[in-house]
Design a protein that fits this description.
Strand content: under 5%
Distance between the termini: 34 Å
Mean pLDDT: 82
Largest sheet: none
Helix content: over 70%
Low-confidence stretches: none
Oligomer: single chain
Number of domains: 1
Shape: globular
Length: 306
């Protein structure tokens, strides 16, 4: 049985960078959605990302695999990691507040801990992991604020949809472990290419040929940034972390995304941080420390030495 390595400094740095890239995606998407439909935004996000990643693959001297089996796996990964969760979250957010959606989406690591325990041999559930996940979810809820919980009893189907998206992300993290032998840029290119092939016919059938045109200006710039930074680069980091640190550690990024989004707003939009947000960040930090386990191990060594 091969153990998944603990998160080292490099993995934590990559995870924080990934959270910043995905935290910024909310800003870019908000601009694009003012003039485009949600599914057109998804189509251009994965389509432009796929094009950029394929260029990067060949520029780096790599080659895309020709195996039918590998491409079938890319299509499964694209469905689990892009099409299913994107669709469920977009639909869910038409009925529930974005803050509540963010809290529900933060259950992704909880699903991952449970699924990884059941489906893998090297990512077993521990008391520390479970406690860390609960602390992280609580931190996201505190940071976003109690107002986000308004309407928890309403629109149950929409809430189930967002939870379904979180479960899909968890399955994607576990399924993606099979790509360890491939370079992260190749896997990212394969996943986004497969997602593009699946979504383009659906969007054209639903919205017509007009969906292929992006209005000039801010929306175009937002789509390009969303595709190149929050998708292309983000998924290269995603598969790099997944290969070395496992699905459970990778999907801790769900806790860090709200932190990144709020800090980006404070730095670039002059938004003020509240005491609740600082308290939420502290809970998230405690949860991450519990899952990482190094502080607890050091404390035990010091206690034994004494």
């Amino acid at each position: 049985m091969t153990a998944v390595p603990a998160m080292g400094r490099l993995e934590w740095a990559l995870l924080i960078t990934l959270s910043i890239l995905w935290g910024g995606s909310f800003f870019f998407a908000e601009i694009a959605l003012t003039v485009m439909s949600p599914f057109a935004v998804v189509m251009f996000r994965v389509g432009l990302a796929a094009a950029a990643l394929l260029v990067a693959v060949y520029a780096m001297g790599q080659r895309m695999p020709l195996s039918v089996g590998v491409w079938l796996a890319f299509f499964v990964m694209g469905g689990l990691n892009n099409l299913i969760p994107f669709s469920l979250i977009f639909w869910g957010q038409t009925h529930i507040a974005s803050g509540l959606a963010a809290i529900l989406n933060a259950t992704t690591p909880l699903f991952t801990v449970v699924f990884a325990h059941a489906l893998t041999r090297d990512e077993r559930m521990t008391a520390a992991k479970l406690a860390g996940v609960v602390l992280g979810i609580a931190g996201v809820a505190v940071m976003i604020g109690p107002a986000a919980l308004t309407g928890v009893g309403d629109h149950v189907v929409a809430q189930i949809a967002v939870l379904g998206a979180a479960a899909s992300y968890a399955f994607a993290g576990i399924f993606g472990r099979r790509f360890k032998a491939l370079p992260p840029v190749v896997v990212a290119a394969g996943q986004t290419s497969a997602s593009t092939v699946m979504i383009v016919p659906a969007v054209l059938a639903a919205e017509g040929i007009g969906a292929l045109f992006i209005p000039w200006g801010g929306a175009l710039a937002a789509i390009v940034a969303l595709a190149l930074f929050s998708t292309s680069l983000a998924y290269v980091l995603y598969f790099r972390i997944l290969a070395t640190a496992g699905a459970t550690n990778l999907l801790l990024v769900t806790f860090l995304i709200p932190v990144s989004a709020i800090l980006l707003g404070a730095v670039f939009l002059d938004e003020r941080l509240t005491a609740m947000q600082f308290a939420g960040m502290a809970l998230i930090a405690a949860g991450l420390a519990a899952i990482d386990g190094r502080l607890a191990r050091r404390f035990r060594r010091v206690s034994v030495a004494d």
